[in-house]
Amino acid sequence: TAKELVQKAGFSYTLRSSGEIPSGSTQVVIGDTMGELMLLYGIADLAFVGGSLVERGGHNPLEAAAHAIPVLMGPHTFNFKDICAKL
Asked: Is the Cα torsion angle 50, 23, 15, 42 positive or negative in sign?
């Protein structure tokens, strides 16, 4: 899971579903809720687009790119291949 990867890397994090407000020391906010991506992208310094580390395929990177922040994705971007090539 994203949470396990963030924990393993040693980052401080919050889960949106916990209701906890990120502090100045929070390094990662895991968006595990519905309907909040635009809000999260608006406050982010960069975005990792989920779903792309497994063969499910990633989510739409255009939403993050629209906020002019760097977009990171895993290798499985086949469902947004053309968009990823243009980014």
From this structure: negative
